[in-house]
Amino acid sequence: MPKYTQALSGAKGQTVIAPTQRMSRIDVWVRTQIEPDHDALVTFQLRRGIKLHDEIASGTVVFNRSGPEWQARLVFDSELVSSGDSLYLRLESVVESEYAHLHYAYFGQDLYPEGDLLELDQLEVPGQDLRFKLYRAPKLPKPLAWAEAVVAPAIAAASKSRGPPAWVIMTVMAITGGLGAALIIAASVVATQVFSDTHRVPTMLTIMLVLTAIVVAIFAGSEAPIGKLWVPLS
Amino acid sequence: MPCDATSNSRQATDISASTQLRLAIAIITFATLHALLWSFVRDPGGGGPDEGPYFAVVSDMASHGAIPEFTGYAPGAFAGGPVRAQVAREITPNFLAIPIAFVIGTIGSSNADLNIQIARMFMVALYPVTLWLSFLTLRRLFSDTRIAPVWGVAVMATVPMFTLVHTYYTNDAPAIAAGTFATYALVRASQSGFGHSDTYILGISLGLVALHKYTGFLIFPATAAIVIWQFLDRPRRTLQIGLTLFLITASISSWWYIRNLVIYGDPTGVAVTQAAVDASGGAPIPPRTRGLTPIAFVQETNWIGENFATFWAGYGQKKLKLPGAAYLAFGSFIIAATIGGALRFLTAIRQGRLSTDVHLYLVLATMHLGLWLLSFWSSYTVDVALSGRYVFPTFLSFIVILILGLQSFVVWRGRVAATMLLTVPIMIASSGAYFFQTILPDVNT
User: Is the pLDDT of residue B399 over 50?
Assistant: First the structure.
């Protein structure tokens, strides 16, 4: 479970090795406790190394209300980073008074051996990591990109766990997904027979659409671009 | 024609038998493939609680061609940790490990990860067996509402922790399958008045239960209760059935307990394990021995919260948990079912309209609640281990009492049945989302 470290005016950061080409997003988790009419400012910087001060991209957010867990999605151009690059995600904060408090989620154990949590650009306590998550942009064009976004993490996990090859994972996922879709259709058809004697087709389509919307909300609700903290880095 | 009118009327209020069967098969197939997918992506040895240590027993068996003997624990093996062992892995009955070890010894490789994946396939294969037996049981118990067995199987196919125990190498999945088989056989035998073939099948299933983890053992007093209840006025028949069941069960499973008695002087292995844990030095003292009251123990360990949470998802403290809202929803279902079940039972008693299967329902409910009590007693007096998965051998009983309770408010026919059916794709989707949002990040982070 992550812990939270308080950020006063200053900088914290995390060193990261880009695991892949086309990296395009890093998520970090921020907790804010801010009184009305006060704020805290955070500049998210993506740098190449700690000492070089070679900024790749940056973006600033002003927090003016409290939130128990902001998932800040830092998005940037996927061409900016190459596989194996040593990166430094720097979170520079300006907290104006005791009426504003910022906390970053971190792990007290070394979950990411390739990098460390830094305080004022220095390694103060070894073996700690900021809570973060890396994403890469899909290679395929839409709508195939959606399929890639679903299948790629499973293939990566299977590879990491010395599981079967990618084609086996893709086949099992395709059949499982197909069965899930068939169950939606079957449930809709069977329910329609009970719900309506005269308007079967519209009833069935309505049920199917409602079910599909619920399923999409369950799967992708956390990624919906509404009410989320998106921070473009440029 | 009257015949057609009746048929149409029935179709309008309930699904047909063939639709019921097709839906059940589709759900079971989905669950099996889903479990297969989970097993592919989980870290070998770290797929779930104690996968590595339990697989080490199988690996040893495959290498040496014999069941390994327990020789004690290394000094300080439990020092500083929160839990003790209850029964050593080498002494806990787990018959399925023998064919798995044989297969690994025959076609396995020098790569331990690959061997773990092979062992996992057996666990995945048990999932459709358990689900199918559950469907058959629910179909017998809820023959008046065809949607209820489908809904019950869908719950069993989509509760994340129940899926998870069928995706890594564990002694839980075989105990669950054996327990479910025995529950099915008990219901079948009870409904047929303990005919010969049904009694034999029940005996075989009890023998299999006796050869697996002790968490399934409450089926024995449950069987005794059912037999005595049904033949209260025929003691000779009770004795005959009891003797038949005992002979079949003993002939299948007694060799394991005789072996333990010969090697360790302890048929169950509990005493020898506890002595070894104490001898290892520094092991935590059981709460009861420490003088903790049961209430203080519950407060200290958050026993209720942890067991409730890990019954649905997440295999240990704070790992792979669901969002808080999901637990609230599950909790609401259980409260509603409990209230409904109690009201239904009390009303039936007052009106003298008890169903013919009431003894079955009561015994299954007692078996499930009894396993929770035993799990509590075991963690309080022996090992402090907390996990909702320990009661999974009676998961089918839980589903029975859940459906019974929820049906108390409204009969699952017509639009109610259709609405319950529409919850099935939502359960399936939620289970799929858990794979993408929790299982995969757990591996990929």
Answer: yes
- Using CA coordinates, name the residue in chain A closest to B158: A180
Inter-chain residue contact A190 with B436, CB threshold 8 Å: no
If you write DSSP's letter for every residue of A71-110 in order, what string do you get?
EEEEE--TTS--TT-EEEEEEEEEE-STTEEEEEEEESS-
Residues A205 and A95 in one domain: no
Instruction: Tell whether A120 and A160 lie within a shared domain.
Output: no
Residue B8 has pLDDT above 50, yes or no: no
Residue B426 has pLDDT above 70, yes or no: yes
Spatial distance between the Cα atoms of A128 and B421, rounded to a whole number of angstroms: 48
Position B54 scores a pLDDT of 93
Residues of chain B with C-beta less than 8 angstroms from the C-beta of A106: none
Closest CA to B131 of B253, B207, B33, B252: B33
Residue of B34, B422, B442 to mutate when probing chain A, most A C-beta within 10 A: B422
Give the model's pLDDT for residue B318.
58
pTM, two decimal places: 0.87
Neighbours of B401 (CB within 10 A): 23
Residues of A in contact with B25 (CB under 8 A): none
- Binned at pLDDT 50, 70 and 90, residue A101 comes out as confident
Enumerate the residues of chain B whose CB falls inside 8 A of the CB of residue A164. 40, 117
**What is B291-344 written as a DSSP string?**
T--HHHHHHHHTHHHHHHHHHHS-SBTTBSPPPHHHHHHHHHHHHHHHHHHHHH
* Closest residue in A to B43 (Cα–Cα): A161
Encoding tokens for residue A183?
Answer: 């169950």
The ipTM value here is: 0.85
Residues B49-102: tens digit of each pLDDT:
889 999 999 999 999 999 999 999 999 888 888 888 889 999 999 999 999 999
Q: Do A93 and A104 sit in the same domain of this protein?
A: yes
The verdict on A59 and A161 lying in the same domain is: no
Q: Which residues contact B11 (CB under 8 A, 6 or more apart)?
A: A193
- Segments forming the whole domain that contains residue A166: 144-220
Q: Is A229 helix (H, G, I), strand (E, B) or coil?
A: strand
* Cα gap A110→A91, rounded to integer Å: 20
Cβ distance of A176 and B432 shorter than 8 Å: yes
Residues A183, B42: C-beta atoms closer than 8 Å: no
DSSP code of A228?
Answer: -
CB–CB contact A186 B26 (8 Å): yes
Q: Do A211 and A227 fall within a single domain?
A: no
